[in-house]
Amino acid sequence: MPGVIKNMEKLVQNGITSADRKARELALKSLAFAVDAVDPKSLMSSKLVVKGSILKVNGYSFDLDRFKNVYVIGGGKASGSMAEALEALLGDKITEGLVNVPKGSKHKTKIVKLHEASHPMPDDSGVEGVKRMLEIAEKATENDLIICLISGGGSSLMPMPRNSVTLADKRKITEDLLKCGATINEVNTVRKHISGFKGGWLAKKAYPATVLNLILSDVLGDPLDFIASGPTVPDSTTFSDAIKVLKRYGLWDKA
């Protein structure tokens, strides 16, 4: 991947022997190849193809002319790159959109708004972005397509406390779980059950629109309901599972 390792030549030449230099070159090229293989823009370009009005994604086809509106929503650490790539591909076929991205994001888009939010601890800006996404999802009809850009970090970047739970409550529970050494799956199990967005709630709000999920996984085994806490997929966990996690780390009485 050009530019990933900007001083590759110098690093190679620093090897003492020719064998050292050859080993360095091989290692650095392998690293550059690995980074390129998981680059969000590269992945989007390799998986999405547009021919005329037809969008093809991994064997699925969507006739964009069939939809009155094409909306883009989502969030995650890679969602800025994903939005850039999608805009480059679809252009003005996109009606409007908003994705939550980490603060300081350098990505540029014209149609899809990149809304900055906090990671790893959720903030009010993240909540505001989610509210606007839900407005888009709820106004969509059966004649509309919603493309969801989901990636790792989305759990923190897309907070929507449920019922009487406050953002401060959610931050405290997340912080306590992380301090206790809870796994990301355990943290997300709890997050899903105190959220009005995760655990499939976004998909429910988007009905009856057609929803296309573009999900970039950072979770071992690619369990879709744990990537960004699964806002658009069925939840495999229960409230009982969330309670068990809290009790396991001595947090149930504090929650």
Q: How would you characterize the overall build of this protein?
A:
- The mean pLDDT is about 95.
- Strand 1 (about 50) and strand 2 form a beta hairpin.
- The strands form two sheets. The protein has a five-stranded parallel beta sheet with strand order 6-5-4-7-8, with helices on both faces. The chain has a three-stranded antiparallel beta sheet with strand order 1-2-3.
- The protein is about 40% helix and about 20% strand.
- It has a domain at about 40-160 and about 200-235: Glycerate kinase, MOFRL-like N-terminal domain (Rossmann fold), CATH 3.40.50.
- Helix 3 packs parallel to helix 4 and helix 8 packs across helix 10.
- It has ten helices and eight strands.
